[in-house]
Specification:
Number of strands: 6
InterPro entries: LWR_salt
Mean pLDDT: 95
Number of helices: 4
Organism: Halogranum gelatinilyticum
Radius of gyration: 16 Å
Shape: elongated
Helix content: 25-40%
Pfam family, one: LWR_salt
Protein name: LWR-salt protein
């Protein structure tokens, strides 16, 4: 899959022996989308379902903790920006969703994508 969830992340550095200015920084975190066929992480492709709602973080505290673990710093805020994907990866995601619409309590793939990602999908080639 050539796709990533893009987040704006703000983090803080704390040091007891030195003075930092600034202490807070912002960066862009790109979390690769797990392929639906990945046998090592069979539910990893459902990250959007478990963490996003209408194009925003469903539980910011949980995502802050996740980002803190990934980055090794104290994350103070995390905001979902977009799913950046190529056409083939988006089609693969659409196929995986279509194969189990009941899982998403939806009537169509478009409904699922809108329910979780809002209008935050950017297709690149």
């Amino acid at each position: 899959m050539n796709a990533a969830y893009v987040f704006r992340v703000r983090f803080r550095l704390d040091a007891s022996d030195v003075r930092l200015d600034p202490q807070e920084f912002e960066t862009v975190l790109r979390l690769p989308v797990v392929d639906p066929d990945d046998e090592d992480d069979p539910d990893g492709w459902l990250f959007f379902r478990d963490n996003l709602w209408r194009g925003d973080a469903a539980d910011e505290r949980h995502l802050r903790t996740t980002a803190s673990d990934l980055l090794g710093v104290d994350v103070t805020s995390v905001h979902f920006s977009e799913l950046a994907t190529d056409r083939a990866s988006l089609e693969r995601l659409r196929e995986a969703i279509a194969s189990d619409l009941e899982e998403f309590n939806a009537d169509s793939v478009d409904e699922v994508l809108h329910k979780y990602l809002g209008s935050s999908i950017r297709v690149t080639d």
